[in-house]
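Sharing a chain and its predicted structure for anyone who wants a worked example. Both blocks are below, sequence first, tokens second.
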Amino acid sequence: MLEPTYQADVVVVGAGIAGLSAARRLTSAGVTTVVLEAAHEVGGRMATEKVDGFRLDRIGRLLSTAHPELRPGPEGPALLPFDPGVLLHSDGRHHRAGVQPGARARGTRSALHAVRALASAPRAGAGPRRPAAVPGRQVSVPRRRSGAPLGTAMDQARLGAALARLAGTPVERLLARPELPAAEALVARGLPARTIDGFLRPLLAALLCDPDLTTSSRCADLALHAFASGRLCLPEGGAEALPQQLARTLPPGTVRTGVRVTSVSTTSVATAEHGEFRCGAVLIATGARAAAELLPGLRVPDFHPVTVVHHTTDEPPATGASLLLDADRGGPVAYTAVVSRVDPSRAPAGRTLVTSTVLGPSVPGIDTAVRMHLARLYGVSTARWETLAVRHTADAVPAMRPPLDLRRPVRLLAGLYVCGDHRDTGTVEGALRSAQRATAALLTDLGVNRPLHTADPVPTARAA
């Protein structure tokens, strides 16, 4: 029996958020497209596991509404912000880091608001207060230090003004700055050491999944630009909601799961069990390792490993829907949140979901170490918390160390293209940008002159 042969203008290999975004742009331009995915579900690393009514993200990257494709639209999953924003744990206390400046369109009012919000943190020199004791709860004993994590009131105002200026700085100007490792760049920018160590280091570690901040300062600048321009958020229903919504916007039959690609050329894609797909061009939109298997010679970067630990409890910590960072770096947890407060759909009624992220290699006994750290961070006993899942991903985030070309080639030759977070900044937003660049190059080579909707957002219902 002859193997079946399929026809399409473009075959996209990989149904992660980059491949689905590229397919959406191609079909919007009138290009017939087929997306092939080896797994039985779309999403790639943006996967969400269902356990006893809970929705547990495997990696759970922090998103920002600053990227055009993550801004709210008329339908689909909501992007739910951390509210009031970021809390810093230091000296046994929680310090509010202020409300994010928000969209750049707010202009001067955003800058003033940011300065005032950041200046409202505890005054420097004020002795740390012991948290109120609660029966049955552990309370961490504060160590005396001078100043809040953000430094003095003047330091906080300077930081607020710097973030507001950053929000209004064009991206190309950011990319023209001298490049250093992110940790060195923070010092070179002249901000106070207390502000750097107490806020910017833990924040950037969370945004970049890089505890040592070896990432290029260009990636760090873009991450801070997104933080200052938008709001940190989670997609309603789990990380999978975004790729699933993208898949639903495609014409029926575009996405084919359970199809394993074995080789590619500029005019065809061979699969293990589904024959050959003939086409006019091929776009590889997988992770870096899988892409290198199909494209010998493609550079595979190092990766930042990530472990995500999910707990449930009947007594939710009193931090609300904030993102909690450890300014003291006193344990394995880089950041944590009561995510069921941010997104109630992630936990059954009456239950609480606490999700914590550990950066770095997996170590034995990680759950015990995380529980001890969370007890200090939240100021409660975690002895009765139930562990729902511990998920370690070794290749979670591509390492983007300097020197770094943030616009790595997406056109390998006419008819063969590649996109993904490994071709840009190593973030979800970077994956989307690389998809935009790859489809633009592909459409040019195909001679498609129709307008490409480059700023269409992922359809979302609301921004709560």
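Comments welcome. The first strand starts at residue 5 and ends at 13.
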